[in-house]
Amino acid sequence: MDDVLKYLQDTLGLSGTVKKVPESLLNKLPLYLSHAYKYSLLEIDGGYFLLAEEENMNPKTAEQLKKQAKAIFHHTDLPVVFVLYNQSMQMRRKMIRNRISFIVPENQLYLPEILLYLKENNRQIHPLSEFLTPSAQLLLLYHLQIEHLEEFSFKEIAEKLGYSPKTITKIAEELKAKKICRVTGTKEKRFAFEVGRKQLWEMSESQMQSPVIKSYFTRLKDNWNFCKSGDAALAHYTFLSDTGKEAYAVYKVEFEGLRKKGYWEYLDETEGDIRVEIWKYNPCLLSNNGYIDPLSLYLCYRDDPNERVEAEMKELIDKKVW
């Protein structure tokens, strides 16, 4: 549990203590729960939480964990925080959607119960966002797919990505706080990623979001330099067939600039000839073939309910050359 305490201190600035759970409390749990986890009592600012550390490698679904957390609370009257070591990124993402508290030491945490308790007690903390900012996500995707950014100074990276040096500094602070990178140098600072690209993707993917803010249907007046997205991109990177439905990705800044110039004939939310996706970051910076990049495509479709799309997305990541 020392790893858990250190991670809470480093990430949220919280000091806590871990104690042994009284036998009288453990005896309240039914047998299937009492042997499922190694329990500890976490005390923070006068509030108590039950840490449930994985005892075996038996895979559980998010729904099972949600039911178990509810049952543990019912028997002990203490909110539970799962301590995980081997859960997949997809599983952690589902846990976040189901508001299941968890800690992956030195990697990720999601603690709505603890933060709510501290808020009710007027404790001032500044928790990290669950997700990366769009600028930080773009920088990582660029490093993972285009070129190693460790070779360049913050100023050079700013020029490559179209951001200010101040924005790159803020990204560095964000990634450092999330234990994704280090920063080296004094006068000319640089990023230092201590793991390879594949492992870096595995560390950060659950903190990334779909780049799409909103989609409209419209017509294009001319052959503008937009990246192909949607079904055309799926067909380009996977074995799914191209349906012929056109879709393009447009950076929000460019979209608004064209709207002010009257470029878009019409914008409809439900129907039209061509779908235009408004993106949080510039898709052209990650594209070298006229299509959106494969990792952004994955982020757009990773939660798609279609089983064929889900299978192709998994294959896309598994076969990617890092």
Task: Please provide a brief summary of the model.
The protein has 14 helices and 12 strands. The protein has helices spanning 2-12, 23-26, 31-34, 62-76, 89-97, 112-120, 134-145, 154-161, 165-177, 197-204, 230-237, 252-260, 294-301, 307-318; strands spanning 17-19, 37-44, 47-54, 80-83, 102-104, 108-110, 182-184, 190-192, 212-218, 227-228, 247-251, 274-279.
Segments where pLDDT lies below 50 for 5+ residues? Answer: none
Give the strand order of the largest sheet, numbering strands 1, 2, ... along the chain.
Answer: 1-2-3-4-5-6
Number of domains: 3
Compute the number of helices. 14
Q: Give the total of beta strands.
A: 12
Basic shape = globular
Structural class of the secondary elements?
A: alpha/beta
User: Would you tell me the overall average pLDDT?
Assistant: 87
Largest sheet geometry: 6 strands, mixed
How far apart lie the N and C ends? 34 Å
Helix content: 40-55%
Radius of gyration: 23 Å
Strand content: 15-25%
SSE string = HEHHEEHEHEEHHHHEEHEEHEHEHH
